[in-house]
Amino acid sequence: MNDVVIIRSGGDIASGIAHRLHRCGFKVIMLEIEKPLAIRRSVSFADCINTLKKEIENVVARYIKKYDEIYRVWENDEIPLIIDENCDILNHIKPLALVDAILAKKNTGTYIDMAPITIGIGPGFEAGVDVDLVVETNRGQALGQVIHSGKAQENTGIPGNIIGYTIERVIKSPCDGVLTIKEDIGNMVNKGDILCYVDNEPVKTVISGIVRGMIENNTNVYKGLKIADVDPRGNIEHCSIISDKARAVGGGVVEAIMHMKNRVLGGEL
To answer: How many domains does the chain have?
Structure first.
């Protein structure tokens, strides 16, 4: 199918990619795990697993349970999202392109022959080996760049700088357990406030700002997992719009597909 793109993941970066591809006229399908670990749920299509449908900047994704529902969702100009961790959908639909936007910092099972065009997002992929092309995710001059040979920049472990804050704004789980939300997305918090609990362990913010990301309530989490994000700018609008990073990466994916599309369809590959 010459206009179908499958995206592995429904997180915020994957959703920015899906949004841009949908706007460009591609038929997008998103794949997720049963219990998504998306932090920025307000701009993650993965959230439709909990809400059945999710609208982000006038584009709607709808949770489906069967592959044959995909066509009905497309007819409504929406994006279907289905739980499919192992890409079993490839036994039913042959896409033009497959995008791995899991952002695991390693390749968790995508290989170059899964589709005519395969694209890896961020570290963990080598263009021409694991996938056809890689899109850079590290903030800076190269953000969104399409890599034709080689790899994306290595993961630094340091989040992007927002008005002087990096690691301080990202909250990680202190232990294994079940997360209970106290301050959800959109709430203003002050330094030292409790954001959530993991079992009985309180998790506090070390900066003041607005809660921009919070993993779904009652999620089983593990020690070191990213579970929340506090934005020191305190602008509530930032909670509900696609980030600059997601837009840039989405633009890179569009470029990557268009670069290869004519060669693929023309029989050069």
So the answer is: 2
